[in-house]
Amino acid sequence: MGAVSEKQEQEKRIIGQRTTESLLWFTIFPFALQLVRFVNSILLARLLSPSDFGIIGIASVIVFYCNNLSNFGLGNAIVQRKEIRPEHLNTFFAFNLSISMLLCLAFILGAQSIASFFNIPELAEVMRVFSLMFIITALHTMGYTKLRRELAFRQLALNEATKTVLAIAISLPLALAGFQYWSMLLALLASSMIATITISLRARLLPRFAVNRDALKDLLGFASWNFFSLQIRLLGEYLDKLIVGKVLGVAPLGFYEKAFGLAQMPYENIANKISTVAFSTFSQCQSGMEEVQHYFFRTFTAAAFLLFPLYIGLFTVADTFVLVLLGEKWQAMIPSFRILLLAFLLASLGSIFSTINVTCGSHRQDSKLRLYCLVFLVPALLLAVRHGVEAVSVVVLIHNALFLCSSMLLARASYALPVLRLARGILPALAGAGLMAVAIFILKKYLLGSDSPISLLACVVMGGCLYGLWFWYGDFASWSFIKEKVYFYLSRTRKVGG
After folding, report:
1. How many angstroms separate the CA atoms of 335 and 30, rounded?
2. Which of 172, 198, 231 is where one domain is finished?
3. Sign of dihedral through CA atoms 288, 290, 291, 292?
4. Is 39 part of a structural domain of the chain?
5. How many other CB atoms sit within 10 Å of the CB of residue 83?
């Protein structure tokens, strides 16, 4: 009995160590990478037109949505299972690749019809080339899933860094050479292909093209509900762009796409990555609810710590940010940009609650919640789109608020998450970000006055310093584990430097 207990404690320590390292590598490390990606986005916005972003926006929505149809949720099922056999991996590979090849062929043949539906002639050729992403993603998913299961997020972070650097190195020269929207498309395809090769080598995985019925049935028990939930989530994320593109046209979609993309960056590169780490961690300790709660509150606190200053800070300087970095031609996106910043802050918190619900047994309820929110979203978008992209942005904000509230209530009811502990995880970050926003507002209104690069830089530096001081000197128990890691790495850096 003592040996079993000792083994369990050892497993907990290993999971805890891997989780902490994964959070650092998959969230903090990409944070620096995010700045590089952000600068590239700004440069492309100056080089390309809103219509270029609108064309790629429609193509991306269609392809990336259908890309998620190909694995039918089997990837998450592989990660979530306690044990897997080679036939599970082979079945996943064969199923995923087969569907991806069919989708690739379908979009090559149907490209002209898609272009005619949206009344955008350029879209036909874009769709034919973009359809190659189905095959690339199918091959990439195998290595990605295996490394996720092993909590090898360091390798995943390095792979993503490789992909980002390559995409930037390819897209900017092409945009400067006048390739317009093709610069973004060709950069994405080339960088994704190279990233697929590198992640396959790191995962050391050579699956066979073979389907085992028992293995497929075994995986589908979890995957079917996970797939259903994912489709609802993706429809919620992509429908607005399709409706805007169809009703308002490619230029308004370009403004909305750029506002949406910039607001989504912290959500995609921080909140989603924290949720990905949490999913793998929760899957390793499903039987111990106290342990799951422990890691949930750590991930929730880490998300709040990183996301509140980013989103509230961007909201405060949104007008200066757009005019200085993107230029006057993007001024029309400022109102929708502000609304979407708030929408994605709520979506980021909702993703953490959704992760614990899906991983620990409430995936059916989570899927139903997403369906109920989608029932609200579709008619609301159709009514709002006639009033412009700002009205569409408000609908997205309400939709995300509804899902956050409902998923939080489900998590609290299912896993007895204490309200006070949730408040302790979020209030320090909210208070620090609020203090930062007030200081930036005063600085902008009464001291700086005009929208200039110096004004934007002053706001960013002062906001960052204020939040840093709030973190360093604030005596908050919920932040203690973050401070411990910061102290540890700072002390280790000093020793190396000495």
Report:
1. 28
2. 231
3. positive
4. no
5. 5
Report percent pLDDT > 90 for the chain.
23
Radius of gyration of the CA atoms of the chain, in A: 23
Residue carrying structure tokens 């390559």: 166
* 498 part of a folded domain: no
- Answer yes or no: is 384 within a domain: yes
Q: Is residue 236 in a domain?
A: no
The string of DSSP letters for 317-336 reads THHHHIIIII-GGGGGGHHH
Report the C-alpha gap between 2 and 6 in whole angstroms: 6
Q: Quick one: 303 and 211 in the same domain?
A: no
Closest C-alpha among 465, 466, 448 to residue 456: 448
Q: Percent of the chain scored above 70 by pLDDT?
A: 82
**Does one domain contain both 268 and 133?**
no
Give CA–CA dist 282/295, Å, rounded.
8
State the SS3 of 23-65: HHHHHHHHHHHHHHHHHHHHHHHHHCCHHHHHHHHHHHHHHHH
Condensed to tens digits (0 to 9), the pLDDT of residues 71-126 reads 666 777 777 676 777 888 888 888 888 888 988 899 899 999 988 988 888 889 99
Domain boundary among 198, 231, 264: 231
Are 297 and 163 in a shared domain? no
263 and 215 in one domain? no
Query: Which residues have a Cβ under 8 Å from the Cβ of 342 and sit 6 or more positions away?
Result: 311, 315, 397
Please count the CA atoms within 13 angstroms of the CA of 95 that sit on its side-chain side: 23
**pLDDT higher than 70, residue 462:** yes
Integer Cα distance of 184 and 477 in angstroms = 45
Q: Single out the residue of 207, 438, 177 nearest to residue 315, CA to CA.
A: 438
Residues 464 and 315 in one domain: yes
Give pLDDT, residue 438: 94
Instruction: Indicate if 126 and 96 belong to the same structural domain.
Output: yes
Closest CA to 389 of 341, 346, 345, 335: 335
Residues 173 and 198 in one domain: yes
pLDDT at 1: 47
Report d(CA 187, CA 163) in Å as an integer: 10
Q: Are residues 281 and 195 in the same domain?
A: no
Answer yes or no: are the C-beta atoms of 317 and 456 closer than 8 Å.
yes
User: Which pLDDT belongs to residue 23?
Assistant: 55
Is there a contact between 478 and 308 (Cβ–Cβ < 8 Å)?
A: no
Domain carrying residue 428: 1-27+241-479
Domain count, the chain: 2
